[in-house]
Amino acid sequence: MAGRGDLRRTPPAVRALGPRAPLPVIDATSNEAAASATPPVNPELVRAAEVPGARKLGSNVLEILVFRGLSTPLALLLVVLQGRFLEPSGRGRFVLAVLTVSIFSRLLSQLGVAVANHMGSKEWDTPPELRPLAQRALLLGAGLGLAGGAAVVGIGALTPSVGAPTAAIAAAGLVPNVLWQTASGILLGLARIRSWNYVQLASPLLTVLGTVLLVVVLGGQVHAALAAWTAAHVITAVVALTLMRDVWLPIRVPPLADRVSQTLVELALAMGALQVISLIGYRAELFVLEAVKGVTAVGIYSIANQAAESMWLMAAAIATAITAPVVRASEAEAVALVRRSLLKSLLYTAGAGAVVAAGAPFVIRFALGRAFDGARTPLLLLLPGAVAYAPVQILVVYLSVRRGRPRLALAAGLVAMAVTVAASVPLVLAFGASGAAGASAIGYACGALVAWSLFRRLARTPGEGA
Questions:
Q1: What is the pLDDT of residues 74-120, one digit of tens each?
Q2: Which of 34, 72, 322, 325 is in the most buried spot, having the most CB atoms within 10 Å?
Q3: pLDDT tens readout for residues 32-76
Q4: Residue 75 and residue 165: Cα distance in Å, rounded?
Q5: Domain ends where: 228, 262, 281?
Q6: Phi, psi of 47 (to 5 degrees)
Q7: Residue 254 backbone zone (phi > 0: left; psi -120 to 50: alpha; other: beta)
C-alpha cells in the first residue's frame, strides 16, 4: 500500500457526512437487549449511486424488512426470558453491563462503513484496494476494542451494582462485536445484502439460544446470561469473517500508522461519536434511576422502555422503504412523500400504542410475573412520547439522506438527551421508575418538536436535488 494508500487530498472525517446522495446503514438488530430499539438518529452514509447492486434496491429493502421482522420477536423473547429467570435485579445488572459495552461498541463499530465510504469516494486520487483497507479496519477494530474492553472493566469496578467480574464477562464481547459490525459495514458496501442479513440475525438468535441453555436449562444467573450474550457475539464474528473471507484473505498485515489508517479511524470515530450520543440520549434516565433507586428499579423500568420503543419498528420500516425514492425524486416530490410517510407512521404507531396500552397490564404479568408489575405505569407514561418520536425516523431520511445535513438530525437526539437528563433527577427522586418514564417521554416530545421544525424550515428552502 505504500504510495497507493497515500492521499493527495485527504478529506476531513466529516466530509464523508456531506451532501452526496447516501444510503443509510440500517441497524436491523441492536447490539444489546438493553437498547435494541434505539432509532437511527444519524444514518451512517454510504453513497447509494456508487454501491454495487443499487438496481436491486427494492428487493434488498424487502429482504431487510423480512429479517427485521424475524429479529424483533427474538429481542422481545430475550426480555421475557431474562425477566422470568433473572428477576428484576438480575435484569438490571445485565442491562447496565451490556449498556456500557454498547457505548464503546457504537464508538468503534463504524470502521466497515468508513471502508465502504472511501471505496466509493471521489476524493481519492487512487482508490486503495479493498483487501488492505478491510484488513486495516479489522485490525484497528480489534486493537481499539481491546483498549475499550479494559475501560469497560474499569467502569464496572466503579459501579457497585455491576462489579469488575460481571463487567469482564460483558467486556469479552466487545472485540467480536466490533469485528462483526465492521464486517457488516463492508458487506453492505459491497451490496451483499443476504450475507449482511445473516450476520444481523445471528447475534439475537444465538443470544436467545445461549440464554435458554445457560439460564433456563442449567439454571445460571446474570453471569450465565452475559456469557450467552458474549458467546453469541463471538460466533457472529466468526460467521461474518467467514462470509467475507474473500475480502480479507490472504492475511497480510498492512501499516496501521499511515495516512490511510488515520483517515479511516477519524471517519469511523466521527460517525461513532454521533451513535454514542444517540445511545446515551435514549438511555440517560437509566443511569439516574440506578443511582437514585438501585438496580432493581432499572430492571423493572427497562421492560417498559423496551416495550415502548419496540413500536418504532413500523416507522423504521417506512423510513427504509422511502429512502431511495426520497433521494432520487425532485425536491417537491421528496417533500410530499416525506409528509405522507410522516402521517402514516404517526397513525400506525398511535394505533400500536393504543393496543399496547390496553394489553400491557395483562401481558406484563402473564409474561414476566408479578415481580414486574411495577413496569405497567412507566410503560403507559412512555407511550405518548414514543408515539410522538416515531416519525423522527422519517424526518431523518430527509434531513440526513436527502439534504446531507446529519448534524441537524442529530440535534433532535441532543435535545432529547438534554431534556431527559434535566428532567430525570427531580422526577426520579419524586416518582422512581415512573419519573424516569415521564422524563424520557418529555425528552422524546421535545426532540420530535425540534426535528419537525427543522424539516419545515428546510422544506421551504430549495434543495440540492430540486
A1: 887 888 888 889 888 888 889 889 988 988 888 887 787 777 666 55
A2: 34
A3: 433 333 333 333 333 334 434 445 545 655 676 677 777 777 887
A4: 25
A5: 281
A6: -65, 115
A7: beta
pLDDT tens digit sequence for 14-38? 333 333 333 333 333 333 433 333 3
Q: Would the pLDDT of 12 be above 80? A: no
Give the amino acid at 265.
V
Model's pTM, two decimal places?
Answer: 0.64
Residues facing 219 on adjacent strands:
none
Domain boundary among 281, 308, 340: 281
Q: Are 399 and 454 in contact (CB under 8 A)?
A: yes
Domains in the chain, number = 2
First-to-last alpha carbon distance for the chain, in angstroms, is 41
Residue for grid cell 445461549: 210
Do 242 and 262 belong to one domain?
yes
Please tell me whether residues 427 and 381 are part of one structural domain. yes
Q: Residue 113 domain-assigned?
A: yes
* Residue 6 falls inside a structural domain: no
* List of residues 6+ apart from 394 with CB closer than 8 A: 315, 318, 319, 322, 338, 341, 342, 345
Buried b vs exposed e over 420-443: b needs ≥16 C-beta within 10 Å?
bbebbeebbeebbbbbbbbbbbbb
Angle at 124 between CA 121 and CA 6, to 5 degrees: 140
pLDDT at position 321 is 67
Residue range(s) defining the domain that contains residue 42? 13-281
Same domain (yes/no): 296, 417:
yes
Residue scoring higher pLDDT (365 or 277): 365
Which is it for strands 45-47 and 22-24: parallel, antiparallel or unpaired?
antiparallel
Q: For 49-79, b where at least 16 C-beta lie within 10 A, e where not — what string?
A: ebbeeeeebeebbeebbebbeebbebbbbbb
Helix H or strand E segment including 139: helix 130-157
- My answer on whether 352 and 265 are in the same domain is no
Query: Could you give the 3-state DSSP secondary structure of residue 186?
Result: helix
Q: Are residues 277 and 308 in the same domain?
A: no
Q: Which residues pair with 22 in a beta bridge?
A: 47
| Residues 272 and 321 grouped into a single domain | no
Looking from the CA of 350 toward its CB, the CA atoms found within 13 Å total 8
The amino acid that residue 28 corresponds to is A
Beta bridge partners of 45: 24
Contacts of 449 (CB under 8 A, 6+ apart): none
Task: Please tell me whether residues 180 and 323 are part of one structural domain.
Answer: no
Co-location of 267 and 293 in the same domain: no
